[in-house]
Amino acid sequence: MDEGIGDDFLVIGRQFSISKDGILYFVDFKDHSVVRKFGSSKDNKGEKFIDLKEWLKEDVHNDFHIDDLWLDPLGRLILAESTTGKILRISPDARKMENLADSYDGYRFSTIAGLTGSPLGDLFIGSPNSATVYRHDPTLGKLFVLNEDLVRSNDLLIDSTGGRLLVAESGPNRVVVYDLNSSGGLSRSWNLVKFPKGQATPLSIDFLNNEENLLVILLDRGKKLQILDLRRGKLLQSIELPFTCQKIRSHGLWIYMQTKKGIRRIKPPTDLFVR
């Protein structure tokens, strides 16, 4: 790939999620308690969406830190804040905040790596420190442990039916699939892709352009993308990146990437979309 890859687009931010209409919601580069959004504005710092310091009581010893965020089908922003351990839901106009969860069995959440939800309303939360993926049931307002084996998540992805959860994991290096039953609980789990020990660690995953047979995996300490055809069990493309990435998300014909300098994007080969 060209060394100028991603140079046409740079948003000064960290963790991010993308709405259906292409609005980028991201954590402020310097203040990790602030979420900003970027749309038609030409300002690459975006506009402020919400500041947790205006809503939550601050810890005098620790600053707020948003680990991950995700937009649900109703346009509400779900975010995981590690200082308080809270999983928060913010209304589309940022006028209402709800605390969905902050602990399990008396233990407060710490680092969250992976946050997503199903069309049915279930929320899935990856906690690598406890080697657990939690499921939040919106009807009961309760948390449940999803996995039976240990799983140290880096990222989570769910299909459009809400019946299949994919987890990018370290140790072992793999992408594991959790098939879910009609109640959102675990039906079975199985390995989709396994990588050699000590080599490629899958850091982030997403479907390419919402085509669920095309899976993009961020590997090699954030320096490589692999695009897999799940239907044919084939590697379609391997892309070496000129910068290190921590997270990827696909929207339209673009792959957006969280880098040390901000959020960049690349356009994969167009022939991948017409297979």
Give your account of this protein's structure.
This protein has 275 residues and is an all-beta fold. It has a domain at 1-112: TolB, C-terminal domain (Neuraminidase), CATH 2.120.10.30. 0% of the residues lie in helices and 49% in strands. It has strands spanning 13-18, 24-28, 34-38, 47-51, 66-71, 77-81, 86-90, 97-101, 103-104, 107-108, 115-117, 123-127, 132-137, 142-145, 153-158, 164-169, 174-180, 186-194, 204-208, 211-219, 224-229, 234-240, 245-251, 254-259, 263-266. The strands form 7 sheets. A 4-stranded antiparallel sheet has the order 1-2-3-4, with no helix packed on it. Strand 23 and strand 24 form a beta hairpin. The protein is globular, with a radius of gyration of 18 Å. The mean pLDDT is 90.
**Strand numbers in spatial order across the main sheet:** 1-2-3-4
Helical content stands at under 10%
* Measured distance between first and last alpha carbons: 21 Å
Helical element count? 0
Strand content: over 45%
The coarse silhouette is globular
The whole-angstrom Rg is 18 Å
| Broad structural category | mainly beta
Q: Which CATH architecture of one domain?
A: 6 Propeller
- The succession of helices and strands, N to C, reads EEEEEEEEEEEEEEEEEEEEEEEEE
Kindly report the CATH topology of one domain. Answer: Neuraminidase
The CATH C-level name of one domain is: Mainly Beta
The poorly predicted ranges are none
